Amino acid sequence: MAGIGKINLNVVVVDSDRYAMSAINAYFAWDRRTTVIYKTGRLDDFWTAYCEDQLNRCPDVIVIDANHLGGAELLGAAIKRLRAAFPSIMIICLAQFADLELIHAAAEAGAKAYWLKDDVRLHIGWAVCACCCLDREAFSISSSVVEAGRRLAHRRLRLARTLPGPRNFIGFTPRVRQAAELYVVEGMPVRLIANEMGISENAVRDYIKKTYRILESYHDDERDYRDQDMSPQEIGFMRLTALDLADDCLDTLRNYPTGRRR
Question: Is pTM, for the whole model, over 0.85?
Fold first, then answer.
């Protein structure tokens, strides 16, 4: 099968904020390369499910809410326990703010990434997949963590890779992007989008047509979705949420062997 659709990462989401967990789960669900196999507000619940064989698949990625595990010491202990049980797992720490102690604990314990939720948002599927392109010991941080990372004397943070920003589509004004996200990502009907944006329904339809026209003008990614049996809205989501990854990283994702984990 051609394209990035061959990636299949089994994801566990642990977040005490139900709204955040629901959004993260939805974004992963749209991205065919990721499948949420378990979600919970407490890490203890995950361990119970694992010990009782309630998981139908072994996780490749675990996304944990770094701010609500009880501090840096407990975060580090949680990461080390997960790595001991699943040696090849990628542990992604999501946080609301750049806490120096938590960042240091995540890097020291062997997490794969420390990202702020506001930096990642709907791009989380692409961000997790981008981690597959990094070396085993590499550490990924989002843009708002960079300055904090410079203040910490830790080898992994000195060599940390900053997560790329969203892909830039020429012609995407803020209003067009807003309409695109509401329609393609949130699945809102035209009438509600018009109310949300304070414009007419015809204006919304024009924005949506412009969205697909702009996204479809980038033909360099066409092979990524060939033979994937994806709807226009699914392809629109994948393009709209894409990160500005280097060509070598995109090639790695396109040729990512099934079953290979970092």
Answer: yes
